[in-house]
Amino acid sequence: MKIVIGNDHSAVEMKNEIREYVKAKGYEVIDVGTNSGESCDYPLYGEKVGRAVASQEADYGIAICGTGIGIGIAAGKVKGVRVCTCSEPYSARLSRMHNNTNVLTFGARVVGIEMAKMIVDEWLDNVYEGGRHERRVLQLMEIEER
């Protein structure tokens, strides 16, 4: 399974740690983020993550900026992407189980590395339940078509 990971300047260190953590869990990682601390624009990296997921170059995406919000908004503009911005593991788990999210975002200035790892674990280790949630996920996809 392939995970695309992207980041802006505020999250270089966290991206590098999460990239290695995800690799150690057995995933192939595509790194589309910056490796520079020089100021850059998070929308570019959010879009890269979103496009890699939407095109099925990657199965899932992780995007990190200062808060996780801006990069998540950018990734969510790509048709077919369902983003979850999380600061704790419970929301990450339910976003996968109930909303079939395919891009996870969080903030390097909001959560520490150990919390980020817990969030990643819950998100990657859970699967979409379908069933009663399917109708709602289909409604989300229909919104994109209007």
Strand-helix topology:
Blueprint: E1 2-7, H1 12-24, E2 28-31, H2 42-54, E3 60-65, H3 69-76, E4 83-85, H4 89-99, E5 103-107, H5 113-125, H6 134-145
Parallel strand pairs: 1-2, 1-3, 3-5, 4-5
Specify the number of helices.
Answer: 6
The N- to C-terminal Cα distance equals 31 Å
Low-confidence stretches: none
In sequence order, what are the helices and strands, one letter per element? EHEHEHEHEHH
The CATH homologous superfamily is named Sugar-phosphate isomerase, RpiB/LacA/LacB
Average pLDDT value?
Answer: 97
Q: Major sheet: size, sense and barrel closure?
A: 5 strands, parallel
Tell me the domain tally.
1
Helix content: 40-55%
Principal-axes shape call: globular
Give me the secondary-structure category: alpha/beta
Q: How many strand units?
A: 5
CATH topology: Ribose 5-phosphate Isomerase B, Chain: A
Strand content: 15-25%
Rg value = 14 Å
CATH class: Alpha Beta
Would you write up a description of this structure?
The chain has 146 residues and is an alpha/beta fold. The chain has a single domain (2-145), classed as Ribose 5-phosphate Isomerase B, Chain: A (3-Layer(aba) Sandwich). The protein is 48% helix and 16% strand. It has six helices and five strands. It has helices at 12-24, 42-54, 69-76, 89-99, 113-125, 134-145, and strands spanning 2-7, 28-31, 60-65, 83-85, 103-107. The chain has a five-stranded parallel β-sheet, sandwiched between helices. Strand 1, helix 1 and strand 2 (28-31) form a beta-alpha-beta unit. Helix 1 packs across helix 5 (113-125). The relative contact order is 0.17.
